[in-house]
Each structure stands twice: as C-alpha cells, then as structure tokens.
Amino acid sequence: MPAKLNIAFYQQDIAWEQPVANRTMVEEAFAPLGTQADVLIVPETFNTGFSDNMAAMAEPPEGETYRFACSMAQRHNALFVGTWTVKTGDGPKSVVNRLHWVRPDGTYGYYDKAHTFRMSSEASQLARGTRREVFEWRGWRIKPAVCYDLRFPKWLRNANPPDYDLLLLCANWPASRHEAWSTLLRARAIENLCYVVGVNRVGTDGVDIPYAGYSAAVDYKGLDIACCTPGKAEVQTALLDRDALETFRQHWPFFLDFD
Questions:
Q1: 113: annotated active-site residue
Q2: Catalytic pick from 17, 122, 147, 170?
Q3: Given 59, 70, 113, 170, which residue is catalytic?
Q4: How many domains does the structure of the chain reveal?
Q5: For burial by CB atoms within 10 Å, which of 22, 30, 180, 243 has the most?
Q6: What is the pLDDT of residues 214-258, one digit of tens each?
Q7: Domain that holds residue 160
Q8: Is the entire prediction scored with pTM above 0.90?
C-alpha cells in the first residue's frame, strides 16, 4: 500500500449561485496538475456557494455536478472530493448537504453533513445526516466532514486503535471566525493523531459575507504542511506520509487513554 498521499486543495472564490461558472473555475484551477495528485478537494458547496437557495438549487443524486466530478476524477486519475446539495425525495427537508468522494471509475461514496448550521437557513431547509463515515482510498483511511462539524470533537473522534488516518473537511467558514477555524483544525489533528486537510473558500458571497480561506494541511502534531495564502484563490498541494504517522502513534499512543 502506498505510504504517501499527495493532496491538492483549491481555495476557491466561489461565484454566487453559478454552477456552470464554478465547475469551469475548478476545472481550470486543477488542470496544471495532470495526474500528479491522489486527491482533489474543493470547498463546501463549491458549485453554488452557501446560499439561502441551496435547497432550491439541489440536484438529483447523479446530476450535473456529479457528472462533472466523475470527469475530473477520471481526467486526473484522482479522488474528487467536494460537497453540493442533493435532493433525496419529495417530502419536507428532502435535501442534504452531501460530501461526495468520486473515484476515477465513476463509483462514489458520500457523507451527509450532520451538523447543519443553525445560525443560517441551512438548518431549517436541509436534513441532517446521521451516519459517521470512514472510507479507504489508495490504502489510506479517510474520514469526511463538513464545515460546522469541525466544532464537534465527539462526532470526529478517532477510535482506539485509530480507524482513520486523515480527516478531510470542506467548508464555507467566514473570515470573522478564521481564528477559530485555524485553531480547531489543529486541535482535531492533535487529539485524533491524524492528518487534517481543511479547505475553505475566499471572496465575498452574495449577501456580503467575506471569507479569508486559511485552507491548510496539518500534521498529527498540529504543524502546518501546506497553507493557502489568506484571501487568495489558489491551489496548494501537500504530501502526507503514513509511515511517519504510524511511527508517531507507536511512540505516543495517546489513543490508549481515550475516554
């Protein structure tokens, strides 16, 4: 199994409620990478932004954005990770904020955001997910999470022994709370003895909320591996080393004393 995993993450300035423009933006941003990355990650609701109209703009489970994700995964021979809203039925609260991981062969898995943001319309419009997920990609065990989930350590708790190596988090986290974002990314990495990659957006959304990004890949000691420039739309890459992680876990098996 590969000991290294190359992550590419895009700190995107999302075009408000413009799925076609956003998909084009993502395509162009990752194009220079070719097949160098194992995983491509974009922010939460990368195709629309975190809008009050997310429910109305929801797609069927295998709609346009899913097909775009398939094409990206195939073209780059990489896992494509991002969230968009999906309509799962016809009843009330039949829309979820769904994080997808799409493989080059078009197969995919998903995690529905468990902690919908109650200080916005997301909590009143969208259904909450109820299932924790861990999946495997190229020998790595990966836990998916979305934005507000970051504030809930019990939900993201690693097992004893650890059942995941990498926490992937897609977010739309406003600039006014960027200190909390950066602190919590590092806290989740330290307490769970894992790598964390948090991908946030930049720019100003359609209701004038600014986003500063601070997207980062963090190691199991809470140290930065790669960071995006605050306020700048850009792609960064991070090479993760599982052998180094396992050595650290063996020397410092804090998980043996998890509550």
A1: yes
A2: 147
A3: 113
A4: 1
A5: 22
A6: 999 999 999 999 999 999 999 999 999 999 999 999 999 999 999
A7: 4-257
A8: yes
